[in-house]
C-alpha cells in the first residue's frame, strides 16, 4: 500500500473539494468554482496556492495549460485513504433494497447473484461484477520460515492435501540489516514459525488474510508487518481455482459516463469482460495490498490496475463468505471519477447480503 501523503488541513480541504467538484461535473476545477460552491472560508488566491502545492505533489494536474485542475490517481488514492468515510446511510438503504427485492428462500443462489448485480448496477451507475461461489477450500497443515540471507526469507507451507508451496519474502528490517546475526535470525524465525503453526494450523487458507494481528504479544510486536505480509502471501499462493463465471451487469449504465464516450475504450472494456474473465477473476477475488488495514474492501485506482483496459477505471471489491470462509467477491468497475463513498458502501452491503444468504 502507498505511504500516506502529509497535507495541511487547508490542503486536505482543497483536495477534497476539488475531487468532489470534479466527480460532480467531469470538468477541470478552478479556484473560483471552489470559492463559489464550497464554504472554505478563504480567498481564491489561497485556494490557488493550495492547488499549486497539490499539483507539485502529484495529486492534481492540468489537462491543458489554461484549464483548471483534475485529480491524478495519487490524488484519488489520498482522497480514498484519508479524506472520506463510506456512507452508512447508503449501506443500510441498499441492504433493505436487496432484502425487499430478493427473496433468498425462493431463489437459486445464481439467481440471487444476477438480481443483486442488477440492483447494484442500477443504484451505482457502474459495472457490477460478482463471482459465483468457489466452495473448494484448502486448510493449512504446516508453515516454516527459513532464512535465505540478511534481507530475505523463504516461506514454505503445506496444505491439508499435502500440496507444498514456497515464496520469497523481503524482511522489513532496519538499515543495519546487513549486520544482523545469522544465528539469531534463524532462532527468531523458528520461534515465529512455531507461533504461526500454533495460531494457523487447520485454518482455511482463504480466510487468513482477514485475520487482524494489530495487537500482538510484545515479543512478536516488531514482526507485525512481516506477519501481515506472510498471511497475504499464503492466500495469494493458494488461491482457489477461478470460479465458473462472473455475473456482470451495468454496462449500459457506465456507458453514459463521459469517460467512456470513445468507442475504442468501450471495445477494450467489453473484450475484457467477455473474453478475458480468467484475467479479471483474480483481481476481484484477491485481497489487494492496496487495501487499508481493517478495511473490508480492496480498491484499485487507475494505473494500480495491472490490466491495460482498466487503467482509466477504478475497481472496488469485497469478498462474501460461507460461514467464515471467503468464497466469492462483489465488485464495481467504473471511471476513476467515481463517488467512492457510495461505491464502497454498495459493495459492502452486497457482500454482507450474499454472505448471509449463503450461510443461512
From TrEMBL:
<keyword id="KW-0346">Stress response</keyword>
<dbReference type="InterPro" id="IPR029016">
    <property type="entry name" value="GAF-like_dom_sf"/>
</dbReference>
<protein>
    <recommendedName>
        <fullName>Heat-inducible transcription repressor HrcA</fullName>
    </recommendedName>
</protein>
<feature type="domain" description="Heat-inducible transcription repressor HrcA C-terminal">
    <location>
        <begin position="110"/>
        <end position="344"/>
    </location>
</feature>
<dbReference type="InterPro" id="IPR021153">
    <property type="entry name" value="HrcA_C"/>
</dbReference>
<dbReference type="InterPro" id="IPR023120">
    <property type="entry name" value="WHTH_transcript_rep_HrcA_IDD"/>
</dbReference>
<comment type="function">
    <text>Negative regulator of class I heat shock genes (grpE-dnaK-dnaJ and groELS operons). Prevents heat-shock induction of these operons.</text>
</comment>
<comment type="similarity">
    <text>Belongs to the HrcA family.</text>
</comment>
<keyword id="KW-0804">Transcription</keyword>
<dbReference type="InterPro" id="IPR036388">
    <property type="entry name" value="WH-like_DNA-bd_sf"/>
</dbReference>
<dbReference type="InterPro" id="IPR036390">
    <property type="entry name" value="WH_DNA-bd_sf"/>
</dbReference>
<keyword id="KW-0805">Transcription regulation</keyword>
<dbReference type="GO" id="GO:0003677">
    <property type="term" value="F:DNA binding"/>
</dbReference>
<dbReference type="GO" id="GO:0045892">
    <property type="term" value="P:negative regulation of DNA-templated transcription"/>
</dbReference>
<keyword id="KW-0678">Repressor</keyword>
<dbReference type="Pfam" id="PF01628">
    <property type="entry name" value="HrcA"/>
</dbReference>
<dbReference type="InterPro" id="IPR002571">
    <property type="entry name" value="HrcA"/>
</dbReference>
Amino acid at each position: 500500500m502507498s505511504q500516506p501523503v502529509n497535507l495541511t488541513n487547508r490542503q486536505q480541504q482543497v483536495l477534497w473539494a476539488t475531487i468532489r467538484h470534479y466527480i460532480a461535473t467531469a470538468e477541470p476545477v478552478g479556484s473560483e468554482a471552489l470559492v463559489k460552491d464550497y464554504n472554505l472560508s478563504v480567498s481564491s488566491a489561497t485556494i490557488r496556492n493550495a492547488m499549486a502545492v497539490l499539483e507539485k505533489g502529484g495529486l492534481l494536474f492540468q489537462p491543458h495549460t489554461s484549464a483548471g485542475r483534475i485529480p491524478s490517481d495519487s490524488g484519488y488514492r489520498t482522497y480514498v485513504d484519508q479524506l472520506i468515510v463510506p456512507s452508512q446511510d447508503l449501506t443500510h438503504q441498499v441492504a433493505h433494497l436487496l432484502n425487499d427485492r430478493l427473496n433468498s428462500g425462493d431463489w437459486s443462489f445464481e439467481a440471487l447473484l444476477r438480481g443483486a448485480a442488477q440492483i447494484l448496477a442500477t443504484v451505482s451507475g457502474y459495472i457490477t461484477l460478482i463471482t459465483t461461489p468457489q466452495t473448494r477450500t484448502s486448510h493449512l497443515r504446516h508453515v516454516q520460515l527459513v532464512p535465505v540471507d540478511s534481507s530475505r526469507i523463504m516461506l514454505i507451507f503445506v496444505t491439508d492435501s499435502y500440496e507444498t508451496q514456497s515464496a520469497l519474502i523481503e524482511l522489513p528490517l532496519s538499515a543495519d540489516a546487513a549486520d544482523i546475526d545469522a544465528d539469531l535470525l534463524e532462532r527468531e524465525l523458528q520461534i515465529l514459525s512455531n507461533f504461526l503453526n500454533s495460531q494457523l494450523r487447520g485454518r482455511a487458507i482463504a480466510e487468513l488474510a482477514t485475520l487482524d494481528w494489530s495487537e500482538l504479544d510484545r515479543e512478536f510486536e516488531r514482526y507485525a508487518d512481516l506477519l501481515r505480509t506472510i498471511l497475504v502471501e499464503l492466500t495469494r499462493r493458494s488461491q482457489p481455482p477461478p470460479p465458473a463465471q462472473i455475473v456482470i451487469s451495468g454496462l449500459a449504465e457506465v456507458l453514459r459516463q463521459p469517460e467512456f464516450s470513445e468507442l475504442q475504450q468501450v471495445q477494450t472494456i467489453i473484450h475484457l469482460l467477455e473474453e478475458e474473465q480468467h484475467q479479471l477473476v483474480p483481481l476481484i477475488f484477491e485481497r489487494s495490498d492496496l487495501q487499508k488495514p481493517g478495511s473490508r474492501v480492496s480498491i484499485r485506482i487507475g494505473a494500480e490496475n495491472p490490466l491495460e483496459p482498466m487503467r482509466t477505471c477504478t475497481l472496488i471489491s469485497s469478498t462474501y463468505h460461507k460461514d467464515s470462509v471467503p468464497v466469492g467477491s462483489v465488485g464495481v468497475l467504473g471511471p476513476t471519477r467515481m463517488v467512492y463513498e457510495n461505491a464502497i458502501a454498495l459493495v459492502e452491503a452486497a457482500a454482507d447480503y450474499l454472505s448471509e444468504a449463503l450461510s443461512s
